[in-house]
Write a structure and sequence with these properties.
mainly alpha, globular
Length: about 300
Amino acid sequence: MFGYVKAYKPEMKMSEYDTYKAIYCSLCRQLGKDFGLTAKLILSYDFTFLALLRLAALDACCGYTTMRCPFNPLKKCYRLKDYSEEMSYTAACVVLLFYYKLKDNIADSGFFGKFKSYLLLPFFARYRKKACKEYAQVDQNVDEMMRSQKRAEDEKTVSFDKAADPTAVCLSKLFNRENNEDGRSRIYSHFGYCVGKYIYLMDALDDLEEDIKRKNYNVIAHKYLLYQNANPQEMQTAKEAAKALINSCIVQAAATFELLELKRYQTIIGNILYLGMPNALKTIMNKQEKDSKPKSEGIE
């Protein structure tokens, strides 16, 4: 996950934001407990969404307490009193996804990207080995996603659905960890699929300008033939098409969310879906519009 699935703070109540932060801080602490200090550095609010979703389905809430933040000892923050198995599962997802991201960076990045990934790889190879003892199926799911993604990129597919499918399938399995065929599991699976497709397309849109410049594969650029000196109108057409599809993913995810039987955190998860994700899309579109404007010459 890449920073596209987070709450929209201006529309949250203080109590909701405190709860949201408490889940984030608890996940940070769980990463340190299970894997070590380095693992904490890769945490993002995207994974808080996964933790929220898993905890929201539990019958009982373990309650909250306060702690000192290790990165800011003068500051007190809330955390869960007990660390449920759901938090350990989410922490394992964090390190396994990041491990395979490092492997992908080594294969596809430039010199500095490879160098940074090589420095981190020994740490996360060790974390991956530890995570696999308890969550080997998660490792297999992520590995399959990366292999399928590589095949789609090697084929240079122009299909948004085909390009996004590996990420969407992986998220569907991570969200539905029971992997059975009852109605509840199918709802979680479809919910994860919609969120995964949204994440992939958001990342493609966010990286569009850079991928074109570096001649990297990007499904939007390939579908709209943007590598050969595309004019501003063609670029805008491609971005608007991607935006429409991303909005469709958000709508489908929100509709599926309404079918979930959650015991708590409905308003926080609703904030992420109805406000946070659309705001992340708006932020990317505004950034791209700003970057595409020609810089004025001289001083006015």
